[in-house]
Task: structure prediction
Amino acid sequence: MPYNISFISLGCAKNQVNCEQMMASVQAAGHTIQAQPEGADVVVVNTCGFLQSACEEAIDNILEMAELKRSGQVKKILVTGCMTQRYKQDVLNELPEVDGILGTGSYGDICDAIDEVMAGGLRPCHLGNIHTAPQDGERILSTPPWYAYLRIAEGCDNHCAYCVIPSLRGKYRSRPMEGLLEEARELASAGVKELLVIAQDITRYGTDLNGEHQLSALLRELCRLDFHWIRLHYLYPDEITEDLIDTIAREPKIVKYLDIPIQHCNDGILKAMNRRDTKAELLDLLAKLRARIPGLVLRTSLITGLPGEGEAELEELCVFLRETKIERAGVFPFSPEEGTRAARMDHVDMEEARRRAELVVDVQSDIIDGYNASLLGTEREVLCEGFDGQAQMCFGRSYAESPDIDGRIWFEADRDVEPGTFVTVRLTGVMDGELTGELVEG
Ligand code: SF4
Result:
């Protein structure tokens, strides 16, 4: 029987792809998808469980849906994703409003679970094998029509000491190239102009299939398709091969923006966290990338307050950032996650980790201010994403801004600019840390 289903997707872009696949399965089964939860037969909350803060956000969302359920505006609540995988029993015990759960190995069971909750009876609990869960599947895109994600692998084999992802997403599995190219072709013919190639670690792509790094080969094939930009999210530093650097440098469609999470730069901390690089290797790598890829914009993520970090190591990180001038960074206070090795090591409390994060953000703000100032007077190709009536300005992104994480470029235009089109913008100023400019015709 067809039902009205509403989805709430939390967390990262990889989780969003799971949600898009569930939406396609649900629609193919004859159900209707509605944007608002009010009036839905089933609300699916697709959770993130990477950090305690993400779990708290998921619980807040579930409780909001529970409120709607109590007032009769929602009939059933299904919870899927990383938090259910991590805390299955707690979700069932502590949240009686939840009618059923699906783990990260069981997204494919969504239609069965919907039928089961609507039939009543025992709460369904689908917890399939996370190491073998299928990754392919139709999707209903939930991003604006001009960009889409292509998830090329699932899981992670890096086992950083602070991270629970390998236990939530399983071992690293690359998707075969042919299937990826087919999906990419469909995205290109649907009008997608910017393809974001994503995985926990894209640099390892292919090594589990035939022992060889195949990311460069995949990218070369993707560049033959009708995309304007191809953007790469998350490169593990020590897996960046010479061939990959050459491919990125040579292929005009691959944007000169690389997201390389390093987490810290101190050798002792990196080693204790089971990271494979040293500071010297990171410095070499970043210098090599900047030399070989002109115009490169770097993004990273950093953790403050990791076990082993004292004032000296924190200062070392700040000096490293001032020296390497990594343009963009997500800075996170260390969160001792249950079940991880790092949580059992000595570390500062959350408040101190937060204080340190604020210090690093200040360093980073100076770097981005300098970067923005260096661009004034130059022109950038910008993908227009809309018009803001209040600001009376269009907004968009250049290659240096990834969607959702890096902010926008604001620009004045004396004509309508269609969202999803590329224009040239002369950069003239900075507003609240974001670049502003004006449309250049012709
Ligand atoms: S590489 Fe990233 S996802 Fe994998 S274990 Fe390390 S932090 Fe977690």
